[in-house]
Design goal:
This is Acetylornithine aminotransferase. Its cofactor is pyridoxal 5'-phosphate. With about 400 residues, the protein is α/β, with parallel strands linked by helices. It folds into two domains: about 150 residues, Aspartate Aminotransferase, domain 1, CATH 3.90.1150.10; about 230 residues, 3-Layer(aba) Sandwich (Aspartate Aminotransferase, domain 2). Helix content is about 40%, strand content about 20%. The chain has 14 helices and 17 strands. The strands form four sheets. It has a seven-stranded mixed β-sheet, sandwiched between helices. The protein has a four-stranded mixed β-sheet with strand order 1-2-3-15. β2 and β3 form a beta hairpin. α3 runs antiparallel to α11 and α12 packs parallel to α14. It starts with 9 loop residues before the first helix and ends with a helix. The model has no long low-confidence stretch (mean pLDDT about 95).
């Protein structure tokens, strides 16, 4: 008979590698957009597990898919395919520009695959000297050594020895820098159409068009990292659908599994052909359990009801944040799209985003930060309107607590 352990935050420091500094709060259950901790204190969830729990906690369709597939088949390896993977890949192909899908377990893995494929495509078609990857300052693409090197935040990639080479970073939304940098050596331009970790920064339409134009001119591939912006987050199934351009490779993860680890890289048949048998792989990628849940997520999210609902909820969030700001004057602007929004702290509160996050937790609200100066909101795509109202009331109390301190 197992003995129930008395699990506390202090045990994290005893048994976990110290690369995280988690909150003292330990959630134990969730339902919809509400979460309860060990002391049964309730929180409204405006964080969404960092844009992951797109249908909230314990959505019945996802729980049902997990239970049903859990009693059938969990894992095979890619020596064989499986029905849930085939079904999900077909849905992704039918709903996007893509013709081929590669499954992985996380956004970093999907981005690793995208970068390797872009390099292989260039080598096969143009030779080994066409190897430069252009990426952008403040970008985030994952924590593998390749993806963290392509990401535009040196603090995450420094200190681990020599980095992968032929990676050039330039300012996001800077057309002049882009024109000065792209060349015959460029094999790929990788970007988030809406930067997440970098501060919730929208891609300027003219800038995105120039990315596509220059990539076409120099035979480079456009890689969209939609790990955070994808799966309905912006009000389109994928953010590229709200722009004037189509990428050559797209990565998706986070919300694709609604909380269960799964990721995918999407591309065309021509580009995909350069990943021949044995070129790349993943033990767990495309496993039946993850794909069964991904199918359930896709069936719900890729509907007019949910996607149109994101746009309505965006306005409720903006109205709520603007109303709070009219009283307390903490934000210089609210930016982003859909339900990936950032409240940018003004000069008076520079560097204090974590203070606001901790105050929110004290007041029963889960939010995120995107750097030291931005409060980030990435709730469930179907968060009830009454939960938005209640969350905003708690956010106002948290902000008042900081402002009046």
């Amino acid at each position: 008979m197992s003995v129930k352990m008395n699990l506390t935050r202090a045990q994290f420091d005893e048994v976990m590698v110290p690369n995280y500094a988690p909150s003292p709060v330990i959630p134990v259950r969730g339902q919809g957009s509400r979460v309860w901790d060990q002391q049964d204190k309730e929180y409204v969830d405006f964080a969404g597990g960092i844009a992951v729990t797109c249908l909230g906690h314990c959505h019945p369709a996802l729980v049902g898919a997990l239970k049903e597939q859990g009693e059938k088949l969990w894992h095979l390896s890619n020596v064989m395919t499986n029905e849930p993977a085939l079904a999900l890949a077909t849905k992704l192909v039918n709903a996007t520009f893509a013709e081929k899908v590669y499954f992985a377990n996380s956004g970093a893995e999907a981005n690793e695959a995208a970068l390797k494929l872009a390099r292989r495509y260039a080598v096969d078609n143009y030779g080994p000297e066409k190897d430069e990857i252009i990426a952008f300052d403040k970008a985030f693409h994952g924590r593998t050594f390749f993806t963290v090197s392509v990401g535009g935040q040196a603090a995450y990639s420094d200190g681990f020895g020599p980095k992968p080479q032929a990676i050039t970073h330039i300012p996001y939304n800077d057309i002049d820098a882009l024109e000065a940098t792209v060349s015959e050596k460029t094999c790929a331009i990788m970007l988030e159409p809406l930067q997440g970790e970098g501060g919730i920064i929208n891609g300027d339409p003219a800038f995105l068009r120039k990315v596509r134009e220059l990539a076409d001119k120099y035979n480079a591939l456009v890689v969209f990292d939609e790990v955070q912006s994808g799966m309905g987050r912006t009000g389109d199934l994928y953010a590229y659908m709200g722009t004037d351009i189509v990428p050559d490779i797209l990565t998706t993860a986070k919300a694709l599994g609604g909380g269960f680890p799964i990721a995918a890289m999407l591309t065309t048949t021509e580009i995909a052909s350069h990943f021949k048998v044995g070129t790349h792989g993943s033990t767990y990628g495309g496993n039946p359990l993850a794909c069964a849940i991904g199918n359930a997520v896709m069936d719900i999210v890729n509907t007019p009801e949910v996607l149109d609902g994101v746009k309505r909820r965006e306005q409720l969030f903006r109205d709520g944040l603007n109303s709070i700001n009219d009283k307390y004057h903490v934000f210089s602007q609210v930016r982003g799209k859909g339900l990936l929004l950032g409240g940018v702290l003004n000069e008076k509160y520079q560097g204090r985003s974590r203070d606001f996050l901790l105050a929110a937790i004290d007041n029963g609200l889960m939010v995120l930060v995107a750097g030291a100066n931005v409060l980030r909101f990435a709730p469930s795509l179907i968060i009830p309107e009454e939960d938005i109202a209640e969350g905003m009331a708690r956010l106002e109390k948290a902000i008042a607590q900081i402002v009046e301190a």
